[in-house]
Amino acid sequence: MEPLRGDESSVEPDETTIATRGREVDGVALGTVLGELPRPTVAWSAEGQRVAAGGSAATITADGPDRFDHVRRAGEALFAGRAVESDLPRAARPRLFGGFAFHEGDKDEGESPWDGFPDAQFVLPAVQVVRTDDGSTWVVATATGPSAGTEAEARLDEWVDRVEGLEDTLPEDGPGIERRTFTPDDAGWRRQVEAAVERIRRGTLRKVVLAGALTVDLRDELSVPSVYERLSDTYPDCFRFLVAPEGGGHFFGATPERLISRDGRTVRTEALAGSTGRGDTPEEDEWLASELQDSEKDRHEHDLVVEAIKSQLSPYATSISTGDRTVRRLATVQHLQTPVTAELAEDDHVLSLVEALHPTPAVGGLPPDEALETIKDAEAFDRGWYASPVGWFDAEGDGTFAVAIRSAVATERRVTLFAGNGIVSDSDPDREWDEVQLKYRPVLDALE
Ligand SMILES: C=C(O[C@@H]1C=C(C(=O)O)C=C[C@H]1O)C(=O)O
């Protein structure tokens, strides 16, 4: 097939010209491609689109409390005045993929699975393989600089050859698990929940989401692309993501939770909080779902999130509306879910909204500052990028961010999984322990 050419940028070529070139290829296995792509590597699969990307045409990195603002400004500067006109499908337009750390500057002393992960990193990928929602697959190359056009073309040729020559050799089975270590352990978790409940009953804290970490040592070598594919098969309706910065491990997961999507002035988000398990039969499933719908404790936990999201969005919105509270059913767990939509008063960048929303009380708590303090006091591990915003934004300031739960960070033969629960005044430590186990299952099952 003749290459489809994106037009040159409409501005004179200069240091920061962005050129994108792409070509449609016959269906290739994205997981296999993922294993071939250089660092920094990112993958994003959601809402009918799949992207596997590697290398960097531009990277934005930020640390500290201003990380959202810094990334937004750097992103705007990168795109400023450089509309990239292109014949490629919209899914192949230049987008920056990446995410943020949950806390600012929360670094473990010494060795941590998060070594190599800055507080924020976004990459305009040098190479992407994109599967669009109409099922076509594109290899896309992007370059910046004075000779961006010729560079992007050369890169495209190279990668089309490489991608077309790939054999599908991903292992079908997971690596298997040799050893599991919970931080905190069972007893420690109960103590932690009891202490949080006590604090809520005594004072002004209303809800706090406490998490645990589960470190697993693997039997065989880990193929991250294979685990990513397995997650994608089991959780096709979730946001599947992978971020592997240069010099770091692999952070990946399959999360059901949208933090925010901005498309022009229309914004979509949701409250996802309140959980129960899956039944062994459809009847048991239904029973559990209706018990969840009727549970005062879960409704309270959920409604706090709805109210907080509405008030966090209100300074930006001319209108906000919420849909019905329903039950979202996933392979191992069911949640209460309320969709929220809003119309923006101005063209606020998606990253401004990310900053306003993160962390929602679905992963932080209420009041936010007291909850974050409680989390830092209680949790004996670094959350790193767990439960934080991961996703993409484009030149228009549109974008989609998910909340990076049901996730893990992998280094060599060791994977650290994270899972948390909302604790309120009538939380029961035993139930919370069982619930948190359900939330490890997506990644755990993919590794077993
Ligand atoms: C924090 C997590 O999940 C969050 C907490 C939930 C809850 O407490 O019921 C439900 C969904 C998520 O918003 C996690 O999976 O790690």
TrEMBL record:
Any one Gene Ontology molecular-function term assigned to this protein's record: isochorismate synthase activity
Ranges for domain Chorismate-utilising enzyme C-terminal: 187-439
Class in the EC hierarchy, top level: isomerase
GO annotation (BP), single: L-tryptophan biosynthetic process
Catalysed reactions, semicolon-separated: chorismate = isochorismate
Annotated segments matching region Disordered: 1-24
Domain of life: Archaea
Xref: Pfam families: Chorismate_bind
InterPro entries for the chain: ADC_synthase, Chorismate_C, IsoChor_synthase
Keywords: Isomerase
Enzyme Commission designation: 5.4.4.2
Family named by the database record: Belongs to the isochorismate synthase family.
Identification of the protein by name: isochorismate synthase
